[in-house]
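4.2 Preliminary Data

To establish feasibility before requesting continued support, the project team ran the inverse folding procedure on a target of 573 residues. The structure was first converted into the token representation described in Section 3, and no sequence information of any kind was made available to the design step. The complete token record follows.
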């Protein structure tokens, strides 16, 4: 490689004397020959593999496939681990540690002799956290999504990972679901490597990566155990070496238009509400202006084209066989920007020109969609001055305009303690209000917004109610659930002042969420309100509490916005 294209890694390996000796010598114990240090692009394979992250447990093998592609293309692959985030095991919530994982990724990349990066991702937060970290360094980067599990089958019907979980209480209360039934369903639901097989957050994040242009075309929907997933990993390894040679960086791909494309595509696939906090955080890292209102402006009027759980009937495996995301992009071509660039050097529209649809029941046409309007609606009002969100495609149409009496729970523990009390004063017209589950309040903004309905109402056949909180909900979940209320209750947002019996008005068509209480009364309550005690006094959680921003800004740490670039001036000796 000539002087005008000097590799970053040559600052480590290309120097003579003591420092070049140190940088090269210890790597020699792995058996690398001279030419590996003489101008080969060094590619870091950032692996979120962990046995504590079941969705990513196959990425250890995938890394070898990627590294094979890198070596074939003339690169020098070096794999490194970063904090992994297993959605189903970590307490209190992986969202608390997303920013920590992004810091791990950022500093691991910056501190080491790397010219390009491959991000191996899968479970929900492993995708945005590693992208956020990589954005703050801004080297050539490609994403390899780990892929969804194969479709589950339970007693002759499809069972969607995650989505079925939200039905368990109802089945126990109304269908005599016993422990042995649950045990059988456990195995049926999670029957192969991969992340959730619904259009939950993991699939949404993979879709987001492809929509932004960060993956090779068609990569997001391939099942984890399909041989074509390994093929895509292999080709990604080859491509990242070319990207280094072309100096095609994240900032070249992640333009404002790319973010708008991702918002539109998320609406069309029925993607998770979690996209909002992650896309906002990524935009802040790469320096692209993006705000909450953009999700309503660009995404709330888009037709739902993908018939997948939780907004539909099918699963990710069916989606891939039907043609996957390239078909959706082709259908939306007139609503997308065609002058963006993806990691293969072409726009996502160019990459999708030859896409073919093989099942119209899974992927509908724009002329005959699953639903006329999907996406995410942003609400404003005195109950959410800085915004709140709702996902209409997963909600009950009749509840989109609703006025009901608040039943307030001060914490998730309070909710669990009282929700099934037969004497609880609640009916199907009530509005369940959950406080204390925002970024600071929990801490970490957990996926608890879609709380189960009271047992006595489930027994009556009630299937949905309006629920509001400052927390999130799983992308696999459904219901008329208002989320991400900002400011959150734990910092003194109006949500903290709601009392039992207050009337709440939800008007999704007019984008409002209002507490029917006078300003004078709210001021009286505010004067009497006492902030909760901090949830931690030391360690990362203390740093998080001191610096986390509200959900309408992406819930990133204020000290992490933007980036420090790839330059490191001082050596280790």
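Position-by-position output of the design step:
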């Amino acid at each position: 490689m000539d002087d005008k294209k000097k590799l970053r890694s040559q600052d480590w390996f290309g120097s003579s004397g003591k420092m070049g000796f140190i940088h090269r010598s210890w790597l020699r114990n792995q058996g690398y020959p001279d030419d590996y240090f003489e101008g080969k692009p060094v590619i870091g394979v950032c692996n979120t593999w962990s046995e504590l992250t079941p969705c990513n447990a196959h990425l250890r093998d995938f890394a070898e496939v990627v590294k094979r592609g890198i070596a074939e293309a003339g690169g020098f692959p070096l794999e490194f681990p970063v904090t992994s985030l297993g959605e189903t095991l970590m307490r209190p919530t992986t969202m608390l540690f997303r920013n920590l994982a992004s810091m791990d990724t950022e500093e691991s990349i910056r501190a080491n002799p790397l010219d390009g990066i491959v991000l191996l991702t899968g479970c929900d937060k492993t995708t945005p956290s590693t992208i956020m970290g990589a954005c703050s360094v801004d080297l050539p980067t490609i994403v390899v999504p780990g892929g969804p599990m194969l479709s589950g089958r339970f007693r002759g019907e499809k069972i969607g990972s995650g989505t079925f979980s939200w039905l368990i209480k109802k089945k126990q209360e109304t269908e005599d679901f016993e422990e042995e039934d649950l045990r059988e369903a456990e195995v049926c639901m999670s029957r192969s490597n991969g992340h959730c097989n619904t259009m939950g957050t993991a699939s949404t994040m993979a879709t987001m990566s492809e929509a932004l242009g960060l993956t090779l075309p068609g990569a997001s929907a391939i099942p984890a155990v399909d041989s074509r997933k390994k093929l895509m990993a292999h080709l990604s390894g080859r491509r990242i070496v070319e990207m280094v040679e072309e100096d095609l960086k994240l900032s070249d791909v992640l333009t404002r238009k790319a973010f708008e494309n991702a918002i539109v595509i998320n609406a069309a696939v029925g993607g998770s509400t979690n996209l909002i906090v992650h896309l906002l955080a990524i935009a802040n890292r790469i320096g692209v202006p993006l705000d909450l209102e953009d999700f309503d402006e660009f995404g709330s009027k888009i037709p739902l084209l993908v018939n997948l759980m939780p907004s539909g009937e099918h699963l990710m495996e069916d989606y891939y066989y039907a043609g996957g995301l390239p078909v959706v992009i082709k259908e939306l071509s007139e609503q997308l920007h065609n002058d963006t660039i993806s990691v293969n050097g072409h726009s996502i529209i160019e990459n999708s020109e030859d896409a073919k649809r093989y099942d119209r029941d899974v992927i509908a046409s724009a002329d005959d969609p699953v639903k006329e309007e999907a996406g995410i609606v942003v609400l404003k009002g005195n109950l959410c001055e800085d915004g709140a969100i709702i996902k209409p495609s997963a909600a009950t149409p009749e509840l989109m305009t609703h006025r009901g009496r608040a039943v307030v729970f001060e914490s998730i523990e309070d909710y669990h303690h009282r929700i099934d009390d037969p004497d609880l004063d609640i009916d199907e017209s009530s509005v369940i209000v959950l406080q204390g589950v925002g970024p600071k309040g929990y801490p970490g903004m957990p996926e608890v917004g879609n709380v189960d309905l009271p047992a006595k109402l489930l027994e009556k056949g009630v299937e949905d109610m309006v629920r509001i909180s400052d927390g999130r909900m799983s992308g696999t979940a459904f219901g008329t659930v208002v989320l991400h209320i900002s400011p959150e209750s734990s910092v003194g947002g109006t949500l903290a002042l709601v009392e039992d019996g207050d009337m709440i008005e939800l008007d999704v068509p007019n984008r409002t969420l209002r507490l029917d209480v006078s300003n004078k009364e709210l001021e009286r309550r505010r004067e009497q309100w006492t902030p909760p005690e901090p949830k931690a006094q030391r360690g990362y959680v203390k740093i998080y509490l001191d610096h986390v921003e509200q959900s309408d800004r992406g819930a990133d740490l204020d000290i992490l916005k933007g980036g420090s670039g790839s330059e490191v001036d001082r050596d280790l000796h």
